[in-house]
Amino acid sequence: MRALIQRSKQASVTIAGEITASISHGLVVLLGVEHEDTAEDAEWLAGKIAQMRIFNDAEGKMNLGVKEVGGSVLVVSQFTLHASTKKGNRPGFTRAARPEQAIPLYEHFITLLVTDVPVKCGVFGADMQVSLINDGPVTIWMDSRAKE
User: Fold this and answer.
1) Where are the domains of the chain?
2) Terminal Cα distance for the chain, rounded
3) Which of 46, 53, 101, 121 is least surrounded, with the fewest CB atoms within 10 Å of its CB?
4) Are 126 and 15 in contact (CB under 8 A)?
5) Are strands 2-15 and 128-143 parallel, antiparallel or unpaired?
6) What pLDDT is recorded for position 65?
7) How large is the average pLDDT for residues 35-43?
8) Is pLDDT of 5 > 80?
């Protein structure tokens, strides 16, 4: 399971011209599910993101988590995080999980995360426009396979 995490001042998801989810400040998590991912991957990743200290404290040091700053998380499904660009110029997506596997893991990830922080989310598989103001900018890449 891969996640691209961005600290944001505000973010939203628009589908068919309507804003369907928005947060004022917090984290935007683009989440990609791989065909080898399991519930353990979702649990590890959700736990790390909920506790990640990437917000500034009173001294300007990244020392606070999203919950401590009263933030929210906007989760957006993003199968393209598993793109392979080895051959040619068109990315391949064979590592991305099929919807019948990805949707339950995506929903499990959200269920785990919402126990710690307020969560809004996009619509799995929808054509979405994601808007955000990246704060910092702070952008972090995580992969449950690497666990780094």
Assistant:
1) 2-143
2) 13
3) 53
4) yes
5) antiparallel
6) 97
7) 95
8) yes
Q: Are 12 and 19 in contact (CB under 8 A)?
A: yes
27 phi, psi to nearest 5 deg: -125, 140
Cα dihedral 102, 104, 110, 115, rounded to 10, equals -150
CA 41-45-49 angle, 5° bins? 175
Q: How far apart are CA 113 and CA 91, in angstroms?
A: 30
Q: What is the predicted pLDDT for the residue at 148?
A: 72
Level-2 CATH architecture, domain 2-143: 3-Layer(bba) Sandwich (3.50)
CA–CA gap between residue 40 and residue 15 (Å, rounded): 31
In angstroms, rounded to a whole number, what is the distance separating the alpha carbons of residues 23 and 13? Answer: 9
Please confirm whether the linkage preceding 137 is cis (ω < 30° from 0).
Answer: yes
Tokens standing for residue 44: 């590890």
Asked about 85 being catalytic, the answer comes back as: no
CA 81 to chain centre: 11
pTM, rounded to two decimals = 0.94
